């Protein structure tokens, strides 16, 4: 009887430890949903036509300059993509991602900064799902235009694989993150989903369901951009 009670107690302690272990990841996913909702409600926000042509979105909430140090700087957030073979399905579960690079610190101005990145074609998504990506080298990147439409965007912007935006002190603008790197955060994915899964397992292989903490984020994107309006030829 004592042995049975001990096993129950150990099981409860293990469950509690697992819950505490993924608290940070759960909070980060929820914060990402809140940040994106606030940014999409800004009058002069991400152009709708760009949002509708994005295959994936990366949200990195509350990146602080104090978190950065030479050779070891990073910000953490999520990448979420449309489902389906050609990214034409509904938005799916998020994978945890990390943004690294000392150059970021110079752009933060000492204040917490939110970043939103749009992945504009399958090539950019494949790169991010395969390995660490250096923006501007492994994947073309540009500061994203803002406003109701992207009609005034330059050719450089329209041909970029990744468009990036920042929000700092209430100011929202396109921002260049060239020279920084993006990578899948494997340990955070394991903590969030309770198993070892790669970003590709999460986003392309359907190995996990949308967690409760991501419901707001997924619902928001399915409401604000339910269809991929990219040229079908670009999705092949």
Give a nutshell description of this structure.
By secondary structure, the protein is an alpha+beta fold.
Descriptors:
alpha+beta; 9 strands; nine-stranded mixed beta sheet; 236 residues; single chain; 35% helix
- Topology as H/E string? HHHEEEHEHEEHEEEHHH
- Shape descriptor: globular
Report how far apart the termini are: 62 Å
Number of domains: 1
Q: Mind telling me the C-alpha Rg?
A: 19 Å
Structural class: alpha+beta
General description of the model:
With 236 residues, the chain is an alpha+beta fold. It has one domain. It has nine helices and nine strands. Strands 1, 2, 3, 4, 5, 6, 7, 8 and 9 form a nine-stranded mixed sheet that branches. Helix 6 links the parallel strand 6 and strand 7. Helix 2 packs parallel to helix 9. The longest helix has 20 residues. The radius of gyration is 19 Å and the shape is globular.
Outline the secondary-structure elements:
Blueprint: H1 2-21, H2 23-40, H3 48-51, E1 56-63, E2 74-81, E3 95-100, H4 105-108, E4 113-119, H5 122-130, E5 133-134, E6 141-143, H6 155-159, E7 162-168, E8 171-174, E9 181-184, H7 186-193, H8 199-203, H9 215-224
Parallel strand pairs: 6-7
Antiparallel strand pairs: 1-2, 1-4, 2-3, 3-9, 4-7, 5-9, 7-8
Helix pairs in contact: 2-9
